[in-house]
């Protein structure tokens, strides 16, 4: 669908210019210089010829078809130009100008006008507020970055500077480059997920590299990403995590940066390799586009000295990658070709065994990579620099080894990654490795991160769950009685359900909870309490008191008539003292819950991804350790298995120190019930089940709060 | 003291050679090529002249003084050679050969022999198992790494490959280099702390860069580091953290890699900037040697585009650095020189304001750096590349700006750090910045880490505590009665104190604990219990049962005569069932402790640093969240204030959700008491106070375990 836009056969430059510093000049110059394969049509009412090309007064005067318009004129001119483009039946337009929603209300109105013009004319928009786009396959360079290297990575970026950074890095690193670059800008028409779909279907694109500050259609993006990750890896850096970072992202593209925990977990569930560190973005994308994923979560290290091996082993351990023991056969073979001081366990240290002949690296590599315990090979140290560091003649052995590495990577479907501290020197051996699509890095840290990413992607492919989906089936299983509870609250002008209403609603959907009964007098309180087995708890019922404890509106563990009646009076008194105007509906009497493991569950509507659920252990685990996990809804009882494993403290669910475990199955059912509930009642904005007490068998939702959309 | 070794005026090469691939040839060649200022004496019984220099049969035949011997001969030859060196009154020797303790028992014996020869002859040793050393001030290059750049960093390294990596990196990065490189090797004579002391007193050394796998005299090192950090920063990477990493470090230099938590906290208390990521080692050392530390923990960002600023703000927030609001005056001034779309809050985004004149960067920088809220300036983006990316003529403006940056850094004592994605291109403006000692990085992540390190060092200088010391005053406050308890256990052949003995010992030193009494019969049990107020707890007393709970040897909360007597019998029975051969001394009767906040305190003897203490909250906080902190002893009640702040969960001590706080003062006193105890009784190997129950007022050590050295 975006073919005519991203693979345009003809481009009109609206705002073409003869002035060298203008974008309208540079774009034409670059298209010509790079050898763009399509037609170029300069448009400017004041010029006849620009750079040897006929210049048109108006886009409608061009005789041939125009697939794409590059518009370099200011913001206010865009709506009118788009209508002209529509007349000419242009498929797409790249809008460079800033000055839209990122500048506030006035800009936002102008942007809406632009989007309206696009929708009415059918012209699809890249941007506005973008540095442009490049199709490196057809040399359609609409950005003016020179010498951008071609390759197999599609670059999707929300910052022109980050695109420039990544393209510059690719140039310096050599060998791998890009199929496309798209600056999504304000993403006001074409969205992230549409580009993603296009790249998924592009046969030359092997991996997709993204820099995201915020996205407007997060849920559709997740669905597309989930589909895409099976076919090719997506590597993504999400910035704007911090408050100040958010401010800066906000003033940049005007997009909404969402909660980082939500975004990260959502992206990862969709199979995306999320990167925290911008240095790693390009190398990881490069590695993933050239190396097979590692499904065994294991790697062997081959080193020519202790230091690098030690650091690499530290890092890989931090990343949770196994460094498996080598087989006896492997060790024996290595022992035969290496000196006595060598270490033939993993990491393998040649200890001088390559000093006089670096080709021994290839001998070792071949032995190690055949070991069935080993998922791939990481070479660390000086390889590629023996000719530089020691003796020029050693370069020949290195080159011979490089060819053999190339043969190995073709034969076995195991990745090879090379760290060399000579990677920025002129080294023919390293160039040969690059020729064979073996990534070469000068950073140990990045090399290890690349290994970790291959494992992460391999783990995803292995554990991929076809049923995972991010589509929400609103009103799926709503119940008439449930809707009545909500409608009733709305009728009364409330956006908060009272505790017993919230409990009734979740009980309707199968959640284990004691709703209790509302008493309107002391006597009624005791009447209700008397019928309950064991002690009771009393809680104030008032639409005006959200935080019951703050109003001293909760009393626990009451048993006698005297206690209950006194308690009733006390609660009413405290509530009135807390808020004299509060409408008091009575006191909720509920059975006192047994002690259990405290769990907290919550849902909210995330700005980018819509409904999400939070799960964690209650008390200090959530309040101090922030040991909670966020998942995008919907979730099923089965998918929640993984969710429970996402927090450190979940280990308590299995019972520690010889204690019995807890009823995880019922807990998972409760989580999927929450998912169902949010799907069923679109009126719900937020829900808190806190605490939920979990037992060896069953659980009890002790308090529930539901807030409706206003 | 090491002057004659590290600043040697004459070097003998023992094992000098005419064969080009031999170290004994390369060393002489490099010394001559680099222009070593001292005398060079080749030594080899079989040669007369090497590389134009007279060759001596034997070191004793050299007529002039010899300060240093470089010994390139195999391990087994070393002891005899050292005795010859002693005869010649050589001050030091660099021993290249491997084959000592890193190769096991046989090598260990040879190494002891080498150390003995050194001690008897007074020759100080660098190594063995080292790549050598370089004094860049006198061009004494005993390693053979060519073109190592000179500068102000002293490099102290336990891996030759890491040294090569760092020297290579310095060469690529330009401008900053080294005063010395020392490969400590097996550290069998001269220790880390001795080198440190030497570098502290070297006026040309501005920072010290260390790569450590393990050290043999950790405590002396900490003391020296503490003294050094006040004068110049130490930057350190500790590797060998992981098990596999440890294996690799072990086979490399044979040194003992200690527990990473202990090492990291110890180093940081001594003011060392500990680095986790090897990519950051050199840039951080470079930054710390050229820029003033930041004492306000704050920075301003100046960017020419949103993406870089957003990422930088994210990272700095992660590192806990403040990005303060700029003053109204600053904002007003910036507003005057920047376009409307610019952001004049921190991060400042020029939004095209430098496109036609990059000198505007310097205008902005000058305004920002004058702001009193701001501790330093981080410039991120394209600076230095305007002439490359856009238009050659813009380079002039960049150069003008660079000169002004240079003037700024001289005038104000505020650091400037520049991130430029053109840092590996030929850019005169960036070279000018380097000339003015302004660090230029191509990585945003590393730039931010450098800012964080300046803040960390500034914070250390600000909070430096003169009383901190790492010297242990063994037997400082031992008490006769205390020693008696220990001696008694030893006399009985036990290396574990019984619970009541351990409690008696800590009580002697002032710890609040109820020792209880040991009952030998049911009746005695009730006799004792009756006199205690409230309920009691019964615990088995047996030198053969260390884990009382495992043996069902603990009963809680007993009150009546019947309960206590029955309990006594039950415990004895369980203990016998658990271990029929156990010597049972009776049952300890102690008052049942009130509920309180569970704390765990432990001490142990760390391999590298000696006695250390662990503190944390008990239960799941220690068992699952591993939220504990380790400090090297001794600690004082005052220094423990900071210690309590080291764990996340310590926030509970202050009371949360309106709860009252706990008695931190008594807790600190208990920690310093533990310190005193370990100092006083060198027999103690390990101590566990677990749990300690902490109250609003006071605390109770409920269980105590002390293990003695065997």
Largest sheet composition of chain A: 7 strands, mixed
Q: Which geometry of chain A do the CA atoms define?
A: flat
Biggest interface pair, residues each?
A-B, 82 and 83 residues
Number of helices of chain A: 24
CATH class of the largest domain in chain A: Alpha Beta
Number of domains of chain A: 5
Instruction: Supply the CATH architecture of the largest domain in chain A.
Output: 3-Layer(aba) Sandwich
Largest sheet: spatial strand order of chain A: 9-8-11-10-12-13-14
| Span of the ends, CA to CA of chain A | 38 Å
Oligomer: homodimer
Detail the poorly predicted runs of chain A.
251-258
Q: Strand tally of chain A, please?
A: 29
Strand content bin of chain A: 15-25%
Going by CATH, the homologous superfamily of the largest domain in chain A would be: Succinyl-CoA synthetase domains
> Which fold name corresponds to the CATH topology of the largest domain in chain A?
Rossmann fold
Helix/strand/pairing category of chain A: alpha/beta
Range of helix content of chain A: 25-40%
Radius of gyration of chain A over alpha carbons?
A: 32 Å
Quick check: average pLDDT of chain A?
92
């Amino acid at each position: 669908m975006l073919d005519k836009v991203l693979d345009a056969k003809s481009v009109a430059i609206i705002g073409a210019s003869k002035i060298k510093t203008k974008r309208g000049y540079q774009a034409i110059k670059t298209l010509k210089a790079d050898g763009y394969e399509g037609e170029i049509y300069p448009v400017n009412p004041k010029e006849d010829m620009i750079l040897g090309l006929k210049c048109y007064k108006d886009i409608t005067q061009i005789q041939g078809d125009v697939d794409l318009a590059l518009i370099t004129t200011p913001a206010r001119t865009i709506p009118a130009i788009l209508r002209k483009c529509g007349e000419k039946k242009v498929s797409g337009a790249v809008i460079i100008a800033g000055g839209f929603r990122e500048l506030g209300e006035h800009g936002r109105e102008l942007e809406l006008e632009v989007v309206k013009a696009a929708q009415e004319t059918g012209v699809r928009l890249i941007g506005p507020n973008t540095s442009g786009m490049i199709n490196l396959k057809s040399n359609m360079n609409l950005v003016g970055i020179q010498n951008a290297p071609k390759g197999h990575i599609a670059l999707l970026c929300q910052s022109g500077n980050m695109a420039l950074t990544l393209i510059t890095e690719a140039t310096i690193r050599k060998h791998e480059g890009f199929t496309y670059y798209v600056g999504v800008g304000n993403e006001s028409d074409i969205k992230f997920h549409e580009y993603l779909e296009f790249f998924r279907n592009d046969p030359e694109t092997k991996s997709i590299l993204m820099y995201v500050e915020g996205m407007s259609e997060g849920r559709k993006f997740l669905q597309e990403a989930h589909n895409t990750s099976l076919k090719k890896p997506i590597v993504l850096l999400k910035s704007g995590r911090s408050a100040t970072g958010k401010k800066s992202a906000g003033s940049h593209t005007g997009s909404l940066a969402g909660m980082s925990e939500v975004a990260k977990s959502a992206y990862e569930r969709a199979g995306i390799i999320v990167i925290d560190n911008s240095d790693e973005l390009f190398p990881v994308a490069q590695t993933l586009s050239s190396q097979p994923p590692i499904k065994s979560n294991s790697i062997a290290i081959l080193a020519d000295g202790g230091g690098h091996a030690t650091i690499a082993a530290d890092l890989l351990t931090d990343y949770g990658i196994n460094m498996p023991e080598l087989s006896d056969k492997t060790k024996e073979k290595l022992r035969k070709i290496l000196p006595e001081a060598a270490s033939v366990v993993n990491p393998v240290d040649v200890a001088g065994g390559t000093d006089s002949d670096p080709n021994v690296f290839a001998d070792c590599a071949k032995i190690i990579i055949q070991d069935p315990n080993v998922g791939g090979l990481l070479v660390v140290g000086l390889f590629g620099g023996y000719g530089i560091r020691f003796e020029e003649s050693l370069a020949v052995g290195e080159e011979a080894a490089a060819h053999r590495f190339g043969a190995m990577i073709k034969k076995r479907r195991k990745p090879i990654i090379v760290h060399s501290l000579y990677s920025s020197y002129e080294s023919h051996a390293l160039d040969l490795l690059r020729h064979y699509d073996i990534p070469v890095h000068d950073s140990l840290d990045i090399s290890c991160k690349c290994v970790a990413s291959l494992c992460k992607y391999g783990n995803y492919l292995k554990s991929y769950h076809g049923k995972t989906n991010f589509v929400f089936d609103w009103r799926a299983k709503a119940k008439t009685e449930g809707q009545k509870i909500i409608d009733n609250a709305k009728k009364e002008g409330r956006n908060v359900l009272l505790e017993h209403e919230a409990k009734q609603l979740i009980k309707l959907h199968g959640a284990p909870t004691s709703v209790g009964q509302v008493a309107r007098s002391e006597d009624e309180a005791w009447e209700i309490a008397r019928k309950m087995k064991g002690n009771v708890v009393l809680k104030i019922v008032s639409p005006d008191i959200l935080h019951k404890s703050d109003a001293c509106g909760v009393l626990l563990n009451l048993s006698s008539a005297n206690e209950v009646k006194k308690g009733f009076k006390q609660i009413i008194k405290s509530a009135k003292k807390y808020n004299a105007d509060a409408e008091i509906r009575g006191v909720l009497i509920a059975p006192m819950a047994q002690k259990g493991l405290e769990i907290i569950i919550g849902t909210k509507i995330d700005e980018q991804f819509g409904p999400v659920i939070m799960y964690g252990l209650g008390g200090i685990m959530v309040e101090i350790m922030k040991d909670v996990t966020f998942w995008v809804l919907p979730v099923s009882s089965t998918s929640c298995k993984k969710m429970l494993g996402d927090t450190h403290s979940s280990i308590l669910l299995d019972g520690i120190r010889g204690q019995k475990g807890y009823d995880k199955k019922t807990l998972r059912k409760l989580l999927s019930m929450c998912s169902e509930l949010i799907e069923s009642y679109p009126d719900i904005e937020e829900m808190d089940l806190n605490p939920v007490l979990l037992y060896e068998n069953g659980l009890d939702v002790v308090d529930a709060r539901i807030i409706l959309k206003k």
